[in-house]
Structure formats: C-alpha cells, structure tokens
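Quarterly update from the structural biology core.
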Amino acid sequence: MIEFLKAFLFGIVEGITEWLPISSTGHMILLDEFVELKVSREFYGMFQVVIQLGAIMAVVLLFWGKIFPLGKSEKGIYLKKDIMSLWGKILVACVPAAIVGILFDEVFEALFYNPVCVSIALIVFGIAFIIIETANKNKKFKVNSMGELTYTLALAIGLFQLIAAVFPGTSRSGATIVGALILGVSRVVAAEFTFYLAIPVMFGASLLKILKFGFAFTGTELAILAIGMVTAFAVSLFVIKFLMGYIKKHDFKVFGWYRIVLGIAVLVYFAIFA
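Predicted structure, tokenized:
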C-alpha cells in the first residue's frame, strides 16, 4: 500500500514539473532520495519516463480542437490544412532530439544523469530565463500566433530541445521556451508549441523504454505505473491551465529564480549527504 502512495506522490510531482520550466528530472532525483520506490532500478528507469504519458494525455485533451487534423462537413471528412501544417512543424522540430535520443540516450544518461550535472543545468538555464526576460521587457515579439510560426523557426526551436535531450535538468519545456523567446516567439505561443512538441517526443521515449524493459510486469508494477500516470494526468490538467493563464500577464523570471535556488539546494544536499 505504501508503494502506491509513493506512486501517487511521484505522479503529483511529474504533473507539476513536466509543464513548468523547472525540470522534472531535478525534482525526480530529489524525490527519489526521500521517497524511494521499492522497485527494481530497471523498472524505475522505465517508470520515470512512461509516467509522462499521463501528463501528455492532459495536453491531448485540453488542446484537442487545435491538434486534431480531421474535420467534418456536409461533403464528409476532410483534413484541416492549418493543423496539418502545425503537425509538420512539430515533427520537424522533433527530428534533432529524436535522432540524438535514439542513438545516444544511454550514453548521455550515463554521463550526465547525476546531481551535479542536473544542478548545473538548473542554474544555467535559470540564469538564462532571467537574462532573456530582462532583455525582452517591453519588447514586441515577432511571432504572436501559431500560424506565424515557420518551419525554419520550428526547426530552430527543435535544436534548443536537443539541449534537454543531452543534459538532464535543462528541462525540455525550459529549453524550448528559452529558444523560442530568443527567436522572437511570444510567451503564449512558445509555451503552447512546447506542449505540442511533447506529444511525439514523450510517446516515442515511452515506447522505447517499454520495449527495452519488456512486458513482463508484475501486478504491483502495473498498479504503480497506472497510479503514477493517472495522477500525472489529473495534476497536469490544472498546471497547464495555470501556466497558460499566468504567462498572459507575467514573464518567466520567477521560474528562473526557482531553478537557481533548486539547483543550489541539490548541490548542497548531495555535497553534505552523498
């Protein structure tokens, strides 16, 4: 029973930190220190990736009308050209991270998935948020709607997402939002496009992890995975709505400061207790 409660807690943390640009990896490392799941390391490695599927389903539900490419008229079913174009941009943006992830995921995980590297990434991108948002103060953005986002810009944002694929703690959403802001994309469009990018990225990453782990789940493992995913889904619904409302009136500086404080806290904790 206690493991199910832990899975519930992991789902809450995943649902909050996946969408806020504060690094779900950094939080999961800390949470694992204090609330360790009594499962095999192989299962845990798979769990912390596949739990993201719950968070992704929240994006699919909330933005269904903006991402589902089929429409219906008196003449029958038709493809919505603007949404097909959007999916083209999403796939273009995902190519760099997908290639690197498939080829070098285990290498980068072995090299950089540790408290020091994660902390450095938290701090560096926290500083980046503060610097960029300070520079953007009273500045007009070049791209203020999803339709204005070009394939070239989408690919450029995808290259920033590549940073998150290499360095855990960067935050996938953090890297893409920072990149989009640098390229002149508005905060709302940057956040929304980041949500869309997560759909193929997380589905792909989860599929690879499940195939690698295999399908020989125990009943307890299945329950833990289900609880984590369902919780992440429910929490994500609220967090995504909160973030989209928040950035219409505020910038990302507060998340930058939070990342810096968290990064320092992780460094100090592991320096003392490791």
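The mean pLDDT is 89.
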